[in-house]
Amino acid sequence: KAGVTQTPRYLIKTRGQQVTLSCSPISGHRSVSWYQQTPGQGLQFLFEYFSETQRNKGNFPGRFSGRQFSNSRSEMNVSTLELGDSALYLCASSLGGSSYNEQFFGPGTRLTVL
Amino acid sequence: KQEVTQIPAALSVPEGENLVLNCSFTDSAIYNLQWFRQDPGKGLTSLLLIQSSQREQTSGRLNASLDKSSGRSTLYIAASQPGDSATYLCAVYPSNFGNEKLTFGTGTRLTIIP
Questions:
Q1: What is the dihedral of CA A57, A63, A64, A70, to 10 degrees?
Q2: Which of A16, B38, B49, B106 has the least CB density, counted as fewest CB within 10 Å?
Q3: What is chain B's mean pLDDT, rounded?
Q4: Strand partners, B27
Q5: For all residues of chain A together, what is the average pLDDT?
Q6: What residues of chain A lie within 8 A of the CB of B51, using their CB?
Q7: DSSP code of B80?
């Protein structure tokens, strides 16, 4: 079974631009969560989508948004990029649904904002 | 608000030694607890998941224990090897169903000296 995949793996953008990151979950998984990892703040939860609906949200500004498609693939968008958005963005998928399910992480997308 | 702390932040030990990494959490109302390793610039590799009904899990040279009442988990690594050098993260699953947000610890950077 293929693991969680994230594209692209690396991105370089300039301040003020916007960016879209993609995450394909493990087949059959319906929940996708996004995390931001920075040296100063560690790993922080952004949001989680289940069956195309945002189910949980972390404490990030509205510039960070996401969506999930009917095939459970998810995209994350960051508008008006700031230098502080430089980070490793990780997504995780799980079965979701009626029990507490293990989360499986992708390799991440390294975003650098210049 | 759940807070997860890992002590020490960094640890260097000679090859072959046994070692223990610690993870403490402030809210004992958790479900699962998971240990990950992260190599520099890479994503997360799951090591062990301790489910709610379990007190410990073992995989090869790794053993993780969980004591919810005291808010502590430990990861024991036997006969350490240079390939074990990485950052180790623990993450707790919230106890309220439908909340897929993991709260991560601050990490322990482990260096095994050949």
A1: 100
A2: A16
A3: 92
A4: none
A5: 93
A6: 100
A7: -
